[in-house]
TrEMBL record:
Keywords: Antiviral defense, Magnesium, Metal-binding, Nucleotidyltransferase, RNA-directed DNA polymerase, Transferase. Residues 1-234 form the Reverse transcriptase domain. Belongs to the bacterial reverse transcriptase family. GO terms for biological process: defense response to virus. Pfam families: RVT_1. The keyword Secreted does not apply. GO terms for molecular function: metal ion binding; RNA binding; RNA-directed DNA polymerase activity. Residues 18-31 form the HTH cro/C1-type domain. This is Uncharacterized protein. InterPro entries: Cro/C1-type_HTH, DNA/RNA_pol_sf, Reverse_transcriptase_msDNA, RT_dom. It comes from Enterococcus devriesei. The keyword Cytoplasm does not apply.
Amino acid sequence: MKEYSINQSPFYKCHNKKKLAKILGVSISELRNIGKKIYYREFINKKGRVVYEPNSYIKKIQSKINDLIGRIEKPYWLQGGIKKRSNITNSMLHKKSYYFLILDIKKFFENCQRYYVYLFFKNKMKMSSDCSNILADICTYNGKLVTGSPSSVLISFFSYEDMFINIFSLLDTNQVLSVYVDDITISSTLPIVDPHCLKHEINSVLKKYGHSLNLEKSKYYGKSEFKKITGVVVSPKNELKVPNDHRKKIVDGINKIDNVGERSKLSGRLSYASQIEPNIFPTIKAINKKIHDD
């Protein structure tokens, strides 16, 4: 998908509700009463995270917003929520590096406030206050961004773009940055001179915007170590590797292959692993293929 500058977005300088309704594919009456149609279902996912799933009506509008926002130019180091970018492409950016500082933003979505979403539409998109308020209400729930909304990942970046650019400005020219939702990875072919100091400088930037690092999850890796980045391991020899826990699930899965549900899980896990290591588990792949063909 070809990207364009922000001033080419349909949202740019949108100053009336009639135009906004047309962009979102709803009637002007629906737009004026949209607050009454916003509902979310709260549940805990398999990872133990609280998810707020929007009702189908709002989800469709959020997906439309996400599609249009997704066409705006984005930096190469932003890897989350973008077509053809993933946790795997995120790790690929660091494949040639030896030294890694891996950081995690604490409760990121929970601390992404509606006010910053409003400011993105008002100041960056140069929309009218009423149109900016409507979009901020559609994209947030209880005054914040939530896991479960299709627009949250990209909106979180654009709403806090200045924060991430400030972090990028702290790095040396030989250092590589990537941002995957709430995961920040900084790597280099040379040792990072003072990773502890850099970590706290980044934390200071985050705090200016109401965020902070999860210091317990922050790690610095040296040249001889295996580094796990967003679900992918980078070896000391600069090779991308499938994590051991994922390998174990595949090996265990071959013993449950007679179960249709487990067979489907195995196929998915093999497919994912092959994106990281194309030649991984040839025997298991052959067995899995034979059973599917039969």
